[in-house]
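Hi! If you just cloned this repository, the fastest way to understand the data is to look at a raw example. We've pasted two of them here, unedited. The first protein comes first, obviously.
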Amino acid sequence: MEFKLGRASAENHYRLRTFETVGSTNAEAMAAARAGDPGACWFVSAHQTQGRGRRGSHWVTPVGNMAASLLVVVPNHPATAATLGFVAGLALDEALRSVAPDLMLRIGLDGVEGVGPAGRRDRLRLKWPNDVLLDGAKLAGILLEAEPIPGDRLAVVIGIGVNVVAAPEGLPYPATALAELGVGIDAARVFEALSDAWASVARVWNDGRGFKAVRRLWLDRAAGLGETVAVRIGEQVFSGVFETIDDEGRLVIRSPDGLVRTIAAGEVHFGTVATSRQ
């Protein structure tokens, strides 16, 4: 499979390193940062054998799925760098909409399955903090890793995994893949669109100065906004209505007793699972 940068990405001087098979694209990117790579470089493969998810979980990337990591080097401000996860979510959302527009909306009979005229509902949603959902099932995951480097800079690796041909089995949550829904595109096409979408959204982010605009765009596509959610943090579970994300990207929920809680990291559950955890 031949991966290539999109035109806008190449024009913005991003670089690309490809692998037929790789242990971890995130690991390759961070190793490059330690060796002095200046950033703006993508590391991508259609087969990853040692991928990682959040909280150290194993991220499965069988042949044909997409594993891509982008190395960026930014000022050493961890809170600002953390908002790059929302840039990645928006970029991937834009990329999927461009290559598979039929996935964007579901048409329901008399509006039963959707909202608005003709019962249209957006099928692609962004789950806080770093997942992309399709029809409520996980289609893609995003993992940020960061290390300080000389010059008071921070090397940030944004890992993005997309289930193109197959979704992992045996997970505690539903997962799906593009091929399972009849979308006949490959990982190279998804990556090309992603590289261009990243260049566009990153300009809006503007080294963190434009996060308010990114936040607004992300909330427009957020899963569960205004609904009851449950957030697990270690052994504790907090339930409440998902009200917004704040200016640092933290989740803001309001509990039934009116208490507002701001959460920096946690595992979010929706629907009946959230209700049962109250």
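Ok, and the second one:
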Amino acid sequence: MERLILMGGIFLMLFILERIMPQVGRNIVGKSHDISNLGLGAVNLLIGRYFALFTVYALAKYLENLEVGVMNMTSFDSKFKLILGVILLDCVNYWWHRLLHRVSFLMRFHSVHHTDRLLNVSSALRFHFFEVLMGHLFKLPFILLMGIPVEALLLYDVIFNINVYFHHSNIRINRSLDLLLSKLIVTPYIHRIHHSLKWKESNSNFSSFLILWDKIFGTFHPQGDISTPKYGIPGYTQDKYQHFSYMMKQPFIEEKS
């Protein structure tokens, strides 16, 4: 419960700051934009977290009790295991994100996130629940192999969500500060490039928390001169792609706008 309160508090703070010091005007989307995104977030909270509880966390706890998995069979200090677990989970998320963009079936679900024409903190919740469930399943083999402790899963959940809120936010952030932070973590300017209408830009900057994965695996695209590209996917321009009811069924519909 404390984790949810902390994440909810950060979300609310960013939501307020976006209205005080926005990077981009809200006139490019309708009034229902945030409500639709929040609706998807509520579905994911109800379905995704219960699914994770009985899969990801249950497996991690089971392996911990049996001392199965690489990390459970080492004599590493518990704090080192915690840090290592967070780093490994972030690497797994990087490859999951790349896979979403590489496999057309998965991209059908991930496109719900990328059809957003305005990036703000509510966009961090704009994921189809099937993508969320598949993401949890993707983690299971790595948890089984590495024996990632439950504490690392819990800590990474907080770190991941807070940074996703931050780098999707529509806050006007000082460019120098963004450049400084982006040497370590994903920042708004860095992630806005990933949501660009241009394929070369959207096919880069897959990291969720630590930026080093993009730099190691050759998918890093620096901020450049344009800090706020146009967002979305070419062809998905109709207002229906911003409505909750359509986003829920969008992956199962063939037609484009």
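That's it. A detail worth noticing about the second one: The mean pLDDT is 90.
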